[in-house]
Amino acid sequence: MTLIISQMENLNMEEWFDAKLQKNEMIEPKDWMPDNYRKHLIRQISQHAHSEIIGMLPEGNWITRAPSLRAKIVLMAKVQDEGGHGLYLYTAAETLGTSREEVLDALHTGKAKYSSIFNYPTLTWADIGMVGWLVDGAAIMNQVMLQRTSYGPYSRAMVRICKEESFHQRQGYESVCHLAFGTPEQKAMAQDALNRWWWPTLMMFGPTDDKSPNSAQAIKWKIKRESNDQLRQRFVNQTVSQAEYLGLTIPDPDLKWNEERQAYDFGTPNWDEFAAVVAGNGPCNKERLQLV
Ligand code: FAQ
Q1: Residue 37: its pLDDT value, please?
Q2: In terms of Cα–Cα distance, which of 162, 143, 119, 113 is closest to 223?
Q3: Is 213 in the pocket of ligand 1 (CB under 6 A)?
Q4: 282 and 116 in contact (C-beta within 8 Å)?
């Protein structure tokens, strides 16, 4: 009897929850929510937080090697911002009933993922420019929609994060401008970095929509507002003219404006490489294994 009453209550609550989503009202920590909605958010928000923190490592590694005092100050500020983003996001995850220890444990034991992009090495100073221009550029393309995600604490964290990420993207572009308009050697260094970072950046948006197990439910729950492919396409459309201005070539022979779609056609990222990197067999891991 008690079970039936609690099932009926859950049914009513589910209707209430769906109606709230329909009205585009935020779900707040003390509101009733389906267990799977809670789990989905803990997964996504904690993985997002881990990406921000792991993302500090390749850049932090360049602070002592920045080529000028100005570049060093800017990079330190950026790395500090990323740490702050991680903290806002861990806090948002905690409002869902998980603890900082639990989510960090999931990272350390390899149960939780972080963005594949941070398993690529930053070999030259130009790579740091690419991280700002391309990696932050892709991150912000994805995160703008998350400002309207249905869970209040995540949405509010994203508003501040997006403001800071747009500074990050611009500082990266400025840094790449210096190289692209510098000496032939500097321009070649920028081109080499673009060649290495382009495809991994496109993979940051996640698998294609037909291979994305979490997307359909995420969109239904208004956690994600746009799909992986939509965001990837918008990123390509936005970035091509920026590369043209720099006089750099995007390493994709299939990249072509499609008049009918009013969008760029582009090639297929290497999804086998993506799977390997996510599984921990990326270029950084290989380097580490060789060093051991
Ligand atoms: N790397 O079904 P979907 C940044 C996993 S922040 C590794 O499409 P979903 C700041 C995915 O988790 C960058 N794994 O999943 C910065 C899932 O596995 P699971 C991070 C990936 O969640 C810049 C499986 O594949 N941004 O860069 C990746 O609907 C510069 C199936 O995928 C965010 O986290 C990947 N790239 O869509 C810091 C934004 N993609 O969990 C320093 C928030 C997918 O089922 C320097 N997150 N997977 O085991 C999101 O928007 C989504 O979670 C996606 C993935 C779009 C990342």
Answers
A1: 98
A2: 143
A3: yes
A4: yes
List, for the chain, all residue ranges whose pLDDT scores fall below the cut of 50.
291-292
- Among 39, 44, 63, name the best residue to mutate to test ligand 1's pocket (greatest count of ligand atoms within 8 A of Cβ): 44
- Cβ of 58 less than 6 Å from ligand 1: no
262 CA distance to ligand 1 middle (Å): 27
Q: Which two tokens stand for residue 77?
A: 């500020």
Residue 128 near ligand 1, beta carbon < 6 Å: no
Measured between alpha carbons, how far is 173 from 246 in angstroms, rounded to an integer?
Answer: 9
What's the pLDDT at 292? 43
Per-residue pLDDT tens digits for 52-102:
999 999 999 999 999 999 999 999 999 999 999 999 999 999 999 999 999
Q: What is the pTM of this model?
A: 0.94
Q: Are 162 and 147 in contact (CB under 8 A)?
A: yes
Report the separation in Å between the CA atom of 6 and the middle of ligand 1, taken as the mean of its atom positions.
Answer: 35
Q: For residue 117, what are its two tokens? A: 């992009």
d(CA 249, CA 285): 28
